[in-house]
Amino acid sequence: MLTLLSRRSPAWAGLSWLLSLAFFWALGVLSFAQQLPPLFFTETWRQTGLERNVDNDVVSNANLELKLYGATSKEIQIAPTTPNNRQDPPNLWTGVCNGPVAATLRDRNNYVDLTGRAKIRWQTRSAGFHVVRPVVRLADGTWLVGDHADGDGTTENFIETEFSVSSVRWLKLDINTVTTVHADRSSRPEIGRWVEKPDLSKVDEIGFADLMPGSGHGWGGFVNVGRIDVYGSPVKR
Q: What is the pLDDT of residue 8?
């Protein structure tokens, strides 16, 4: 037989305390649950006519500006030649760049917060040992390149991939030469090379790097980068 608890009894007081604790714990879990951030930008590239060296005319999003880095970065080309019988998406191609290069996009009005569940989705293709790596410029001017890499050179098709920014480990990048540098010269290489907990709450530019020289025309060594989608929260400049 069940006995009803009196509201004045110690047992009732204990049960009420436990119920209140469970309620506020659940409320706290819900409040700290990370929501998927909005689409910050998408860039699909604009290509008409023959393959050619890129400029800002190839950017389809009016809020974005294209930045190129590396000694031969002005030789990054917009591809393919149109009309496009292969049905490849418009893309940036590094095949005739004879050194490492990077290309980034910068929103004219906002930084982007790439913490939490921020992610990047892009269409890529590669040849040889070339891979596409993410590159960011932080608000304080620090340049980083990620260990995430897409492209294995085994297919002529573009592959769409998506990755969480929080899963990426970062190295410092000398943007003038587009080469990696040691994060902290006072630390041993095995513990000092990765940038520990970089502040990704205000990112100024986002893009990709190809850290190897291109092989020229033909299926030798290069990367192609098509549509880029960045999910993160805007932060006013």
A: 54
